[in-house]
Give the backbone structure.
Amino acid sequence: MKPTLAARINGTIFYAYQICPREAWFYYHRLNPSQEYDLLLLGRLVHEGSYQRARKEIFVDQLLKVDLFRDEMIAEVKKSSRHKEAARLQLAFYLYYLKHEKGLEFEGVLLFPKERKTERLRLTPELEERITSLIKEMLPVLSSETPPPVKKSKYCRTCSFQEVCWG
Ligand code: SF4
């Protein structure tokens, strides 16, 4: 049986979990960093500027924010390919959600406008299995009353929660 997606796992939480489960826990519990944090602001500007003309951002169930919807393709825009695997999994989660919750089968494409890179993504049976097991793994971690312990990583230096974890 597939785990329910009714829990509040959105695209941001799914992406963050691949990088740091503690950060994902913060988002899941609606603890958001300051909107004026420099890196977030930069990310938002890249996001808003790069695909302005082609942009058709769509929210699905208040959980997924799909950057571009075109024909049978959805796109996710990232400011850099630094966390490419997390971005791939986030997009795969979108494809999975649309398939299982909406009966829609799409292909995905990752766009890294600053680096002029694109990568197409299909929801293969293997990838679908991976998303199923990730959701199973994430739900108890996210719904726990306490966050996962602090774990130092190279990502901490640029994380918007660094003051919470290390301040
Ligand atoms: S500062 Fe480090 S441990 Fe804390 S949420 Fe960010 S990445 Fe995770």
